Amino acid sequence: LAAGKIGAVGIDVHESEPCTDSPLREFDNAILTPHIAASTQEAQLRAGVQTAEYVAAGLEGSIVPTALNMAPEVMDAVGPYVPACQMMGSMLAQIDGEIPQFLKLTTAGALAHADASILVAGTLKGILSYQSTATVTPVNADAVAKRHGIKVETLSSPDAGGYASTVSVVADGTEVACTLAGEAQAARLVSLFGYQLDIAPAGQSLVFEYVDAPGRVGTIGTILGEAGINI
Fold it and tell me: pTM (2 decimals)?
């Protein structure tokens, strides 16, 4: 290289990585990279942060994208819906107050042909979060459901009701459905108890079902106000 017999050199395997003591480092026309990309300082930092994020997700019972038993195409298609399914499962558990005996999950639109096992696992995690400390994954979801006496059924439909895709969950007749919206893929409830709506769920929500008549909302507001609850 110094004699000009070759125009440039690129090497990506070194006895010690990252390579810091090679005389080739003096040349502008030499590129020296680690054989393992994660050996760079930037990649090491990002790998550490990502590992911590994935461990935290696993401990919370959420989905770990790099799990060996989870195909990348499955994560790309349905992964963003997992937190939404956990949220819907949690809602159903709080509304009904007990573990359901029958659970039906329907994927629609772009999700119609996706593997729903990861969504079932997320929904069960949400349902059981108030009743059990069971860890639910796509691998053990069936066993967890059977252990708690939950019969699970999955369906699919090409029609998502005007949305690109939706996931609907029915637990012992109580129904809730959601879609994802925007660049942040934020969950939006599009159906509850069979009522069509479009709501971004908050951390704390109150759900009422009542006869539509004048003064009902005012009465609810008054009761909550007297209890010091700000809505």
Answer: 0.66
